[in-house]
Amino acid sequence: MEGLFSLLLLVLLSFVAVLFHLIRIFFNAPVDFSMDWNLFLSWIPLITAFFANNLTKRFGYIPFTLILLSLIWLAFFPNAPYMVTDLAHLTVNYERDLTWHDTIMLFFYAEVSLFNGLVSLYWIHQAWRQVFSRSVSTYLFLASLPLAGFGVYLGRVKRMNSWDILNAPEQIPMQLWNSITDRTALVFSLEIGILLGILYLVLWAIIRFRVRYTKGSSRQN
């Protein structure tokens, strides 16, 4: 299945992140385990996009299945960039060794989570291009960036999470309305969307360059 190597690599990086956490537990307990939970949540859109990409390449035109998978992906996609905001929890004490360990640990968790999100965005985008027109897939891609930022805002500021869709659906409309009319939410959503867009362009450029370089080398041989 296409992308299996990427999944294995991201699994390895996730284990390294957990190793950083285990080192901290060994030297200083108790520890907040929300990082591990948030890292787990960032895997849900990755796995969803993995199956969406492979299903569309195998079965072709499956719009209803892809729409369903895309909704699941979008509901959990904000969990990937969410961990960037965990850096706000850092307490600075330059004379304390754990300050630097926590800085590296939180950054590594955020980095792996972002990798999960960016790879999932690449795969779901490829699935959209397989099923929908180029313009529709582009619109979906562009819309997903600020929507992810809006989801991060709902999680960090409003303390909502993806499971509220099942646990407390009656509270969602009011929370959404209050947030949509909030200027901070709009700025936050736009900036997270820009961050994801720039990082995605870097990933896309690297992949495209590698593909073209590989094809060029094959033709020369």
TrEMBL record:
<feature type="transmembrane region" description="Helical">
    <location>
        <begin position="104"/>
        <end position="124"/>
    </location>
</feature>
<feature type="transmembrane region" description="Helical">
    <location>
        <begin position="136"/>
        <end position="154"/>
    </location>
</feature>
<keyword id="KW-0472">Membrane</keyword>
<keyword id="KW-0812">Transmembrane</keyword>
<feature type="transmembrane region" description="Helical">
    <location>
        <begin position="64"/>
        <end position="84"/>
    </location>
</feature>
<feature type="transmembrane region" description="Helical">
    <location>
        <begin position="185"/>
        <end position="207"/>
    </location>
</feature>
<feature type="transmembrane region" description="Helical">
    <location>
        <begin position="33"/>
        <end position="52"/>
    </location>
</feature>
<protein>
    <submittedName>
        <fullName>DUF1361 domain-containing protein</fullName>
    </submittedName>
</protein>
<dbReference type="InterPro" id="IPR009793">
    <property type="entry name" value="DUF1361"/>
</dbReference>
<keyword id="KW-1133">Transmembrane helix</keyword>
<feature type="transmembrane region" description="Helical">
    <location>
        <begin position="7"/>
        <end position="27"/>
    </location>
</feature>
<dbReference type="Pfam" id="PF07099">
    <property type="entry name" value="DUF1361"/>
</dbReference>
